[in-house]
Hints:
Blueprint: E1 2-5, E2 12-15, E3 18-21, E4 24-27, E5 44-50, E6 56-62, E7 70-76, E8 78-85, E9 96-102, E10 108-111, E11 115-121, E12 126-132, E13 141-143, H1 164-167
Antiparallel strand pairs: 1-2, 2-10, 3-4, 5-12, 6-11, 6-13, 7-10, 7-12, 8-9, 8-11
Amino acid sequence: MTITETKLPGVYTIEPRVFGDVRGWFMETYHKLKTPQIDCEFVQDNHALSKQKGTLRGIHFQYPPMEQAKLVRCVSGAINDFVVDLRPESGTYKQWICVELTAENKKQVFIPRGFGHAYVTLSENAEVVYKADNYYSPEHDGAILWSDPEIGIDWGIDDPILSEKDKTAPPLGEICL
């Protein structure tokens, strides 16, 4: 595995070694001993399908004490995956990165606790799978308005397909982190 830290400290891209032959291919998607940068124990796996190209999910997070670290990959289709630093004390607070994750490139993104997560589908029938190190808690569920100018994400699309939750989420300035 090739593990590369992004401009956001603690956020890594992971490129697995893929072993292929006439039968197909094999890869390890996670190996605790080979990823010492990922210092957490995963307790929940999630799998989401977005049927339409241009679907935007996020910016999502969980409030303390139920924050979640995530290991995200795209298993069908393609997405642009976005990570936003939501730690007010951080030197990279409000900064964001974008990583293209596809079924073909097999890249993953590790997102530690304290960050927001979102993605935009680049294809129809995009499937995203991610591990989380804490259980989903509806009463700790948080979201930030996708178009918040204080964060200023360039999503690469003008008119995304959004859930009601994401359409009506508050801007960052109205949230106590």
